[in-house]
Amino acid sequence: MKHLTLEELTDLIWATINGLGSTGPCHVQAAADMLLTMIREHGAKLDTVVNLGRAVYLQLCSIPVPRAKDNVLRAISLLARDHAPQLVATFLDFSIPLDSHAFQLWRALGAEQPMSCQVLAMLLAWLQERPLPIGASDSGPQPKEKKTYLRSLAAMNALRELQFTREFKEAMREAYPQLLLALLTQILYVLELNLPEGPQAGQEAQGAASPSPQSTSLEALKSLLSTTGHWQDFAHLELPGTWALFTTIHTYPLAVGLLARAMVQNCCRQIEAVACQLLPALQSQEVRARKVSMLILNEFLYSPALLRVLPEQTALTALARSLRDPSPEVRVLSLQGLGNILFHPEKGSLLSRQLPPFLDGFFRSSEPVVVRLMGTVSDTLHRLGAHGLGAQSLSIAINSRSFFEDERDGIRAAAVALFGDLVAAMAGREPRSLRTQVQQSLVPLLLHLEDRCPAVATQAKFTYYRCAELLGWQLRHTLFCSLAWARGLSARHFLWACLTSCSQEELGIHFAQALSCLHSCQRRIKTRAALFIGYTLCYHPRAASQAVNDSDKMLLLRAFEDLKKGPEPGIREFATRQLSLLQEVAADRSGLQPSSLTGQTPSAPPVATAWSAPPRPHRARWHNIFPFERKI
């Protein structure tokens, strides 16, 4: 090869690439070895890299020898040292959709650590090449604009998949602030394109349907949070269902604000780095970028970390300058930021004085009015920021908790959400009385995870998690996963175990609260209360015995008899065992036979003869029913 001209060397490279498609494994291996050698020795002076990259992609799917494929991918890694921009642009052309072979080529581009950062920077640059949306003009985008628009979507596909790879893991962490702003802006861009969300006609039947740009852009944002260690921020969006707000252009601003608010409430370590990107973004030629930056800045004004990199006067100047922005939306957002309590400390006392009349309005008869008032109180809590509530926090907690069992679904959901917002607003500076209220709300919230109203159940998940954050529970990541995705008896038992292990002193209060919920008009809440009681009887019999009187025992007998008729086999077996225990205990206290208490023959032999000492074999059988708890 030292004696070949560049033209002859190029011809030889094309001959080896054609050899990759040979049917003979030895021929394929020889071609791959030659290609790797030629790229290593002469790759820097090649001038047909675009066609070469495209040809390698077309041949990659037909290479049957794993070692030969590894050599080809290694050759791409070496070629990227001198021709990364050309290869990135070429690979973008076949990244919609992104198949496994294109994915391997992207990984090869970032196989060397310095190159992964460069490739990521190039992908971000292509992501931000966003021409006018389709339909913005009568003629639509011109061919050049259309290709740029497609490459922007292809870069989004590549970024989404590369977040999970070992080669790009460190580069993604280092570029988190830029990626966050770029992906948020990309979601807005895709919404403005108004592309079809489902597969095109014929795609579904052929099995060729690929994820829509809307879902891909949102999944890219989700994976950015989850793969870079920001699971707390992810939890604050997953539990209340905030991701759905990113799917429409009208609710998008609220979604971005809630993401930034989650970062502030979790004291995210990236706030300062993201804040450093906001001022340049506010000077961007792209309206979308300025809008996203303003939405984030308005929420970051509540974070002390912001002032460490962006002095108050600098932030004030940036907001005032944005009042002259060509976009009406940006001007409105800047006006909202200028009204922040950071610039007007006197607003703290004014907002605090407005709270008592709002709390009095909770007892009006109109459901829409009460829901709106509770939402207003939540908004006031947020606007007060670090100025706090002082003694009024206890009044808000008591008033909101009093509506947890209201018959009106909307008021229950609003009350649970308000309590969660109060917990988040007071975290780190909560008085002792508020911690007591939080402790006493745990069982009602746990039971309302089974509320008949989906909105109440969703808010109960999020508020329960916020309470765990304030109380400093361990295993919060596992708790979040259980609340978000786990189902069945194992998940219920784990949530019970978290509660009882972290609040042993209040176990008697929790048991009494569960007993009172056996009178609930919602069957699912009654079932969950009975399960809570059953777990406590099994694992904490001494504490349970102090909270139960004779009438409670009869109530429990009826509750477990009812559970025996339920549809779930696991719950039926659970109820049978508990019923046997309760009948034995009640008979031991009253001198009656167990069967005389219910008029039936016990379906299982007695498993204990006293509240305070269930024998160890009995406890071992519960571990057979709840393998998830045993694993934990």
The CATH architecture of the largest domain can be given as Alpha Horseshoe
- State mean pLDDT (0 to 100 scale): 84
Instruction: Indicate the radius of gyration in whole angstroms.
Output: 31 Å
CATH-defined fold name of the largest domain: Leucine-rich Repeat Variant
Beta-strand content: under 5%
Largest sheet: none
Q: What global shape is seen?
A: globular
Oligomer class: single chain
Distance between the termini: 62 Å
Overall SS class: mainly alpha
How many helices? The count is 34
Uncertain residue segments: 136-140, 204-208, 590-632
Provide the CATH superfamily of the largest domain. Answer: Leucine-rich Repeat Variant
CATH class of the largest domain: Mainly Alpha
Tell me the domain tally.
4
Q: Quick one: how many beta strands?
A: 0
| Helical residue percent band | 55-70%
Structure description:
By secondary structure, the chain is an all-alpha fold. It has four domains: 1-112, no CATH class; 230-339, no CATH class; 345-501, Leucine-rich Repeat Variant (Alpha Horseshoe); 506-587, no CATH class. Helices cover 70% and strands 0% of the residues. The chain is built from 34 helices and no strands. The N and C termini lie far apart (62 Å).
Present the secondary structure layout.
Layout: H1 6-19, H2 25-42, H3 49-60, H4 66-92, H5 100-109, H6 113-127, H7 143-162, H8 169-174, H9 176-193, H10 203-206, H11 213-227, H12 231-238, H13 252-265, H14 271-282, H15 287-300, H16 306-309, H17 312-322, H18 328-338, H19 347-360, H20 367-384, H21 392-401, H22 409-426, H23 432-447, H24 454-471, H25 476-484, H26 488-502, H27 507-516, H28 523-539, H29 541-547, H30 550-563, H31 569-590, H32 594-598, H33 616-625, H34 627-631
Helix pairs in contact: 1-2, 2-4, 3-4, 4-5, 4-6, 6-7, 7-11, 9-11, 9-14, 9-15, 12-13, 13-15, 14-15, 15-18, 17-18, 19-20, 19-21, 20-22, 21-22, 21-23, 22-24, 23-24, 23-27, 24-25, 26-28, 27-29, 28-29, 28-31, 30-31
